[in-house]
Design goal:
Blueprint (H helix, E strand, L loop, with lengths): L4 E5 L5 E4 L2 E4 L14 H17 L4 H6 L2 E2 L2 E8 L8 E11 L3 E10 L5 E10 L1 E2 L7 H4 L1 H8 L2 E6 L3 E6 L5
Antiparallel strand pairs: 1-2, 1-10, 3-6, 4-9, 5-8, 6-7, 7-8, 10-11
Length: 171
């Protein structure tokens, strides 16, 4: 399962290989029933999103140093099967919509050992300056905009299929 990778293509079609994020479930993340408490999945989503950003060459810390923040607008999570203490979850993260002002991200969490689907989730984010005013990365920070997606993103999963995601430039 951990062999999956995401490939991001730019104008020169040279691939940047992105590895899925892995999280090893901790004992303190469990609830009284001995399973991972549902609130932890949202934290794991943030970890995976930050990891994706670092791999494309733009850490969240760098964005903050440029006085750009990206708050969560909405989040949803569907729990398909339980994660227990000591399980390792592989989190595939993909940007499904991006227009320079807002970004939607999807997450697919699977058990590393069995490949069983654990959780699917979505989050929506915007980009603001330190004063809390919306900004367009395309206009104000084109060098950051190209790091998110200059033209399109292709996802490769288990060598079975390519799923193309087009950047929405009309929003």
């Amino acid at each position: 399962m951990a062999g999956k990778e995401i490939r991001i293509y730019g104008e020169d079609e040279s691939a940047i290989k992105i590895r899925p994020y892995e999280h090893h479930a901790k004992y303190y993340e469990t609830d009284q029933m001995g399973i991972i408490h549902h609130s932890n999945y949202i934290k794991w989503m943030e970890e995976a999103r930050m990891n994706l950003m670092e791999q494309i060459g733009l850490s969240y810390k760098q964005m903050e140093e440029m006085e750009i923040i990206s708050p969560v607008l909405s989040v949803s999570c569907e729990y398909h099967s339980m994660v227990h203490f000591d399980d390792t979850v592989v989190i595939e993260t993909k940007i499904t919509k991006y227009n320079g002002i807002k970004m939607d991200v999807e997450y697919r969490m699977t058990d590393k050992e069995t490949g069983e689907l654990r959780t699917t989730a979505k989050s929506s984010h915007c980009f603001l300056n330190r004063s809390g005013r919306p900004i367009s990365l395309k206009r104000s920070y084109p060098e950051i905009d190209t790091k998110f997606l200059s033209s399109r993103m292709r996802i490769k999963s288990d060598n079975r299929y390519w799923n193309e995601i087009r950047v929405n430039s009309n929003d």
